[in-house]
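Chapter summary example.
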Amino acid sequence: MDWPLKHPHPWRLSPEEAEALQRRLASAVAPAPLDWDALTTVGGVDVGIRDERLRAAVVVLRFPTLQLLDQAVAEVPLTMPYVPGLLSFREIPAILEALKELRLRPDVLMVDGHGIAHPRRLGIAAHLGVVLDWPTIGVAKSILVGHPQGALGEEAGSTVPLVDDGQVVGMGVRTRARVKPVWVSIGHRVTLDDAVQLVLRSARGYRLPEPTRLAHHLASGKHGNDLGPLFQAGSAVLQ
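The structure predicted for these 239 residues follows.
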């Protein structure tokens, strides 16, 4: 499936060039409410590394049942080192290749990583969203910038704002009682409130919401290129 790029650009840049591009693209991030009545599918995106190759995985789930509808994997050579704050330049080319393999285009993409909760307000979820001009949400496992504004309750559904330089850049979200939270931020064409609600409505008793949890399993390569048989057997197989 073709995904036209609204903001195409080179991916092999010097750190200085990449940071300058991030600052320019960050101005294109446009929060907008989700159309919940029209929301029927949600995608999950994650990238792993196997044998010096990047393995990008995308899943598409029906919403709100979270039935697995589609999945795709793309592997590309690992050609860039990890540079803090520039993860998107290493991983998005692989993600774009995986997206091309989908048969269904999800209404929103949930990305394992940050959206605007980033030093230059353009983490991988925001970068992907702006390049595609597609609704995206960042769901990260740790904080990159900012500090929680208050205490986070232990109950599932508890939230706490993540503030950086006086700006709310994300939300700590407890998806499971007494389990570490995830850090949700706007990618593109979503509001923070809608992003948090979609993450909570996509949680199925695990720390990670189901779209990125399944994408993570597919990106790991432990289950091959098809989660279908394991998903049908019950998600407990994928713990």
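To summarize the output: The helical segments are 15-26, 87-100, 124-132, 192-201, 210-220, 228-233.
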